[in-house]
Amino acid sequence: VQLVESGGGSVQPGTSLKLTCTATSPSYRSYCMAWFRQAPGKEREGIAVIYTQRGTTFVTPSLKDRFTISQDNTKKTVYLQMNFLRPDDTAMYYCAADGTGLLHRSYKRWGQGTQVTVS
Questions:
Q1: How do strand 45-51 and strand 109-110 relate by DSSP bridges?
Q2: Is 85 strand, coil or helix?
């Protein structure tokens, strides 16, 4: 099973992007999926998590006013809607599955990442 992210790009401050993460196996079912990001020289940062069975979500407080996580169970896809992007949002964004909350070391599966550059 692979996780495939898409939707990154280079955008201007104040604009929006929607990232997508899809599990390649149609039979795969994760109980928990999350988004993380990592800027050069910085620690990997947890952004948001969704518990797929109930759709319960949590977004890290510093981002919850601008970022939203959601899912489409029929497509086994998780989204990260990012609004009012700022230059300090520039990072590689990763999707992860089968972990605990926003503890990145607990996650077993990772996508390859999608770059977001805001300038």
A1: unpaired
A2: coil
Compute the radius of gyration of the chain from its Cα atoms. Answer: 13
DSSP code of 87? G
Euclidean distance between CA atoms 63 and 30, whole angstroms: 24
Residue 74: φ, ψ to 5°: -65, -30
* HSE-up (13 A, CA, CB side) for residue 78: 29
Would you give the DSSP letter of residue 84?
Answer: S
Distance spanning both ends of the chain, measured CA to CA: 34
pLDDT in tens, 70-114: 998 777 899 999 999 999 999 999 999 999 999 999 998 999 999
